[in-house]
From TrEMBL:
<dbReference type="InterPro" id="IPR005358">
    <property type="entry name" value="Puta_zinc/iron-chelating_dom"/>
</dbReference>
<protein>
    <submittedName>
        <fullName>YkgJ family cysteine cluster protein</fullName>
    </submittedName>
</protein>
<dbReference type="Pfam" id="PF03692">
    <property type="entry name" value="CxxCxxCC"/>
</dbReference>
Length: 183
C-alpha cells in the first residue's frame, strides 16, 4: 500500500514529527499506548530493531498475507521497562507516530483519544474555529471528548476506542499553524 520503503520515509511522517514536537506526554500517563496497542512493523523497523541489544526475536510475530510479509509486536510491549521504552532511539515508526496512527488509506491518519491526543485535538478545535473560520461540528467535538473520558474504562474492558480521522492535507496546514507560533 505504501510502497517498498519504510513508513518513516513518507512525507506525512515528518509532518507528524513536527506536530508532536509541540507536545509531550503527561507524566500521569503510564505509557498506555505501549500496553494496549499492536505495534505493526515494516522491514525498516525490523532492521533497526535487530540492532538493539535488547532485541527479542521471540516477540516478533510474522505472517504472510496476499503474498506480503507482515510483522508485529503484540501488547504489552516487551521493550517497556518500568513504564519507559528501553529501546527509545530504535523504537518503531508506529511508536514515533503516537498518538497518531496510520489508517488503511494513504491520505488519512487517525488520532488516538489519549491525554496527549486530547491536547492536540483541543488546539485543532481552536485552530479550525479561529484560523480556518471553519469550526468543527459540535458532535465531532463531543464524540472525541467522550472517547477521551471513557478511554481508560474502555481499555480496561478490552473495548475498542474510536479514533479521530484527519486528512493528511489538513494536518500539514495545522503543522504550519503550530510553526507560526500563533497558538
Ligand atoms: S501517546 Fe498517549 S497513551 Fe502514549 S504515552 Fe503519550 S499520552 Fe500516553
Ligand atoms: S517499542 Fe518502546 S515506544 Fe514502542 S511500544 Fe514498545 S516500549 Fe512503547
Amino acid at each position: 500500500m505504501y510502497g517498498e520503503r519504510g513508513l518513516s520515509d513518507l512525507p506525512v511522517f515528518e509532518t507528524v514529527q513536527e506536530i508532536l514536537s509541540h507536545y509531550s506526554c503527561p507524566s500521569t500517563c503510564p505509557a498506555t499506548c505501549c500496553k494496549i496497542a499492536d505495534i505493526n512493523l515494516d522491514e525498516k523497523d525490523l532492521e533497526i530493531l535487530r540492532q538493539a541489544s535488547k532485541y527479542k526475536a521471540d516477540r516478533i510475530e510474522s505472517w504472510n498475507e496476499d503474498g506480503e510479509d507482515h510483522y508485529k509486536i503484540s501488547p504489552p510491549c516487551p521493550f517497556l521497562e518500568s513504564d519507559k521504552c528501553s529501546i527509545y532511539d530504535r523504537r518503531p515508526t508506529m511508536c514515533r507516530m503516537f498518538p497518531f496512527n496510520f489508517s488503511n488509506m494513504p491520505d488519512v491518519l487517525l488520532l488516538f483519544p489519549c491525554d496527549m491526543g486530547a491536547n492536540i485535538f483541543e488546539d485543532y478545535v481552536e485552530y479550525s474555529k479561529n484560523i480556518l473560520n471553519r469550526p468543527l461540528p459540535a458532535k465531532t467535538i463531543e464524540a472525541f471528548e467522550q472517547s477521551h473520558c471513557s478511554f481508560g474504562i474502555k481499555l480496561n474492558k478490552g473495548l475498542s476506542v474510536p479514533m479521530l480521522v484527519f486528512k493528511v492535507y489538513d494536518l500539514m496546514a495545522f503543522k504550519e499553524y503550530l510553526r507560526s507560533g500563533l497558538k
